[in-house]
Amino acid sequence: MTRRITVFCARRTPVMRLGLLLALVLYVITSLSTVWADDTDVLKIGDQKGGTHALMQAAGVLDDIPYRLEWRVFAAAAPLTEALAAGAIDAGLLGDAPFLFAYASGAPIRVIAAAAPDGEKSAGVAILVPKNSQIKSPQELKGHLLGTIRGSAGHHFALLALEHFGIDPRDVKFVFLGPAEAKAALSTGAIDAWSIWDPYLTLAEMQDGARPLVDGPEVPRTGFVIEAANIDAINKKQALLENFLGRFRQARTWLGTHIADYAQVWAKETGLPVEVANVVAQRHYALFKRDITLDHTLSDQLAAVFDIYRRLGVVTLEHGVPDIDKALAPVFNSVLSASSNRTGQSFSSQKITE
Fold first, then answer.
1. CATH number at residue 205
2. Residue 129, SS3?
3. How far is Cα 328 from Cα 138, in angstroms, rounded to an integer?
4. What is known about what this protein does (predicted)?
5. Which residues of the chain, if any, have pLDDT below 70?
6. Residues in CB range of 301: below 8 A, 6 or more apart
7. Which of 51, 265, 268, 270 is least buried, going by the fewest C-beta atoms within 10 A?
8. Global confidence as pTM
């Protein structure tokens, strides 16, 4: 005898559907709340290949960190500052020029640390021309195509170099390209010159035979290296940022006697030849020779960096002339006086506003 088994399925009434929907919404809110809560124990750092991460990894200062450290890698400072302004990352290392370019546009970012080379001249940046170029002097750049990234350290250096050699920058045709595109354009003759920094500078010299038309040390400039942070991260993650800065400072001190070790890690991380890494590592060390106090002296120097952008109309100043004093977060000066083995004690808190 065959038994018939009947399965009764309850119909989902509107009330039941509403209950399920509310339960789902509650689950999502709870999950997001957990993520947001945990985010205060996560530090998201923007980097460029072979940059901060490679140095800190080589120096061994990334061990036993009492919070989660996440890295985001960018091809240049321009996309890094965009991510910083949007809050996609908390902090990142970049040059003074791209920082000021973003700050003038109203980006909610501040300087939390700064360093500079000894003296007023620095290597690691140059205006390159192809090895067979007929251009022999900076004055011959008039009317020619000069590639760089808008608002970058290369752009700023090009403007300074042209004025230094008596050329009105408006007499040169700027072409704004990313590093990979500009390198290819220079090698094919699509542009006549390229204002660029390391490692792209050394790579173009060694791989393509490009030659410096104007080298960094030829042009008086300080060239500050800046660790910038989003205002929201400063207010919510000050202790984490201080811990990170202390570790990065340890790494820079270590670099002074371990340049070859850093070069090996740099080459592995970037996939570039050790010969390139050795040159870049030496130049990177030169950039970090002096820690700079975040004070009026620095803001005055940054204002001078910004001035050429303003004079030549590179920035639109839709938000008015920026107050460079407010670009600094001097509460982080405490890291400079901290002992080299400090690992993240709480320092005094100071609310930063836009």
1. 3.40.190.10
2. strand
3. 35
4. Part of a binding-protein-dependent transport system for aliphatic sulfonates. Putative binding protein.
5. 1-38, 119-122, 222, 317-321, 337-354
6. 222, 224
7. 268
8. 0.80
